[in-house]
């Protein structure tokens, strides 16, 4: 993938999701799973750029009221099928991060897992909208790749400006109380596209 890979993000992700399999699997992201106990039971949750639905469906199965959106209609259709197979209801929409209608002070939790198609300008807008959409006391669960991932090449865009550092996240989410923020290396096994040794940033933060 090169610097122009996200000129047509909807087309890129629709093509990636067009097969019958689930590109990142159907199990939730491990960082999200490890912090799920921090989320209020029965709370209202937003999954940003949720892809084929692995995280939103898992949260709905845990009793959360879940909204989710993704730019790729193909991915959202597969997410709806995954939710139906699991017997849960998730409110899905096809939208990008700029076009989705962001409510204010609404969500008990927002989940943003590997939302790394965003260039720095879009990322700034996205992060500001996430902060605004959290209700007081709401939790943000975020994971992404760090620049060291360029060495591992086991997932994510090989575009330095799209990757996260702890310093960047701390500055971007200065309005939140940082509960955990760390950079670390771990083995991922998420479908066929996040596999192997990976350089990660994980953040759990709370809105005062």
Describe the structure.
By secondary structure, this protein is an alpha/beta fold. Helices cover 29% and strands 30% of the residues. The protein has 7 helices and 7 strands; from the N terminus they run ααβαβαββαβααββ. Strands 3-2-1-4-5-7-6 form a 7-stranded mixed beta sheet. α3 runs parallel beside α4. The longest helix has 14 residues. It is globular. The N and C termini lie far apart (39 Å).
What would you call the shape?
A: globular
Order of helices and strands: HHEHEHEEHEHHEE
Adjacency order of strands in the biggest sheet: 3-2-1-4-5-7-6
| Number of H/I helices | 7
**Could you describe the largest sheet, including whether it forms a barrel?**
7 strands, mixed
Termini gap = 39 Å
Mean pLDDT: 93
Identify low-pLDDT runs.
Answer: 1-5
Number of strands: 7
| Radius of gyration, whole Å | 16 Å
Strand content: 25-35%
Q: Tell me roughly what share of residues is in helical segments.
A: 25-40%
Structural class: alpha/beta
């Amino acid at each position: 993938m090169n610097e122009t890979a996200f000129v047509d993000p909807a087309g890129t992700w629709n093509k990636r999701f067009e097969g019958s399999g689930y590109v990142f699997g159907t199990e939730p992201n491990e960082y999200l799973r490890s912090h799920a106990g921090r989320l209020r039971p029965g709370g209202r949750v937003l999954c940003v750029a949720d892809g084929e639905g692995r995280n939103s469906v898992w949260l709905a199965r845990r009793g959360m009221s879940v909204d989710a959106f993704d730019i790729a209609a193909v991915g959202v259709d597969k997410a709806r099928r995954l939710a139906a197979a699991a017997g849960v209801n998730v409110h899905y929409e096809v939208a990008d991060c700029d076009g989705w209608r962001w409510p204010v002070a609404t969500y008990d939790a927002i989940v943003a897992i590997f939302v790394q198609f965003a260039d720095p300008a879009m990322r700034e807008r996205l992060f500001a909208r996430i902060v605004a959409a959290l209700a007081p006391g709401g939790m943000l669960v975020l994971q992404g790749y760090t620049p060291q991932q360029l060495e591992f090449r086991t997932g994510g865009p090989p575009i330095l400006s799209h990757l996260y550092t702890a310093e960047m996240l701390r500055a971007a989410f200065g309005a939140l109380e940082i509960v955990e923020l760390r950079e670390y290396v771990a083995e991922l096994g998420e479908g066929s596209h996040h596999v192997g040794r990976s350089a990660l940033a994980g953040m759990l933060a709370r809105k005062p």
